[in-house]
Each structure stands twice: as C-alpha cells, then as structure tokens.
Amino acid sequence: MPARTQPHPWIRTALSLALTLVLAACSGYPRDADDMTQRADEQGMRVGASHDPPWVLVAPDGRVSGPEPELLQRYADARGYRLEWVPGGHDALMRDLERAHLHAVVGGHHRTSPWKPRVGWSQPLRARPGGDAPLPERRIALPPGQSAWHLAFDSFLVQHGDRR
C-alpha cells in the first residue's frame, strides 16, 4: 500500500482561512429580512388582535385580553419591549403582517386560512381558556422572512411551556 502524502502546508493554511471566513460570514444568522427584532427593541412591539373568543377578546374601547394576548404580553415583558395592540379585522391585520408592519397577529386563525402559506406561524400553543373541551390547535401569526424574530418567539414558547 503506497504511503499517503500530506498536503502542502500552504494548502492547509488556505483551507483553514477559507473555513474561518465562511464561518465568520454565517455568524449573523438567523436574520430578520425587515429588522423586526431591532424595531421591537427601538420602537416597541406592534401586535394585531382580532376578536376571537375565548382566546382573544377585543373590547369596544380597544382593550385586548385573553390567553393569547397574555402570552404576547409575557413575551414583551421578558424581552423588555413596549407592546402596542392594534385591534382590527383579521384580513386587514394579516395584510399588515404580511408587509412586516406588525410583529404578530392573534385571533381569527382557522385551519383552512388562506394566509397559511403567506405568513409565518409560531409553534402550537397550549393555552386552555377553561373547560374540558378538546383544545383546537392555536398558533400566533408571525411576519414572513423574519428568521431571528421567529426563532426568539418559538424559543420563548419552548422555554416557558406554552407549547402543546
């Protein structure tokens, strides 16, 4: 069996340098296409809310409550974000979410929603509004293309036991 020769030292150096540059270029991932995380840090978190009892309740005066809004408030508090609720109709809120004008939308999502392929979705929630009825799968709608934002939110859900 012939002896295996070692590559020339400059080849190993070049390969090491190339690998270092590739890894350094990847250090900023995941990223938000529209700087959602930075905007939440600087301007606060804007969340759309569509009346969807018992999970999301929007009062006539615009106050938002329920298990899903409480979850978003806990997330905002944990990250130090000011939270601004934007009550409205589901489709109008989802259009704003699709354009990255909102950080999330709660309420009004259904299994057959036409928005499923157009926006991002959180991990399934397990907030139970009460009673013994089977819990339908609930998710928070998130803006598309915001990888760091999605990862941070889903990590929060996993760490705080808010997944199914």
UniProtKB/TrEMBL annotation:
Transmembrane segments: none annotated. Keywords: Signal. It comes from the Bacteria. InterPro entries: Solute-binding_3/MltF_N. Residues 1-24 form the signal peptide. Residues 46-126 form the Solute-binding protein family 3/N-terminal domain. Residues 109-135 are annotated as: Disordered. It holds the Pfam family SBP_bac_3. This is ABC transporter substrate-binding protein. It comes from Luteimonas kalidii. The lineage of its organism: Bacteria, Pseudomonadati, Pseudomonadota, Gammaproteobacteria, Lysobacterales.
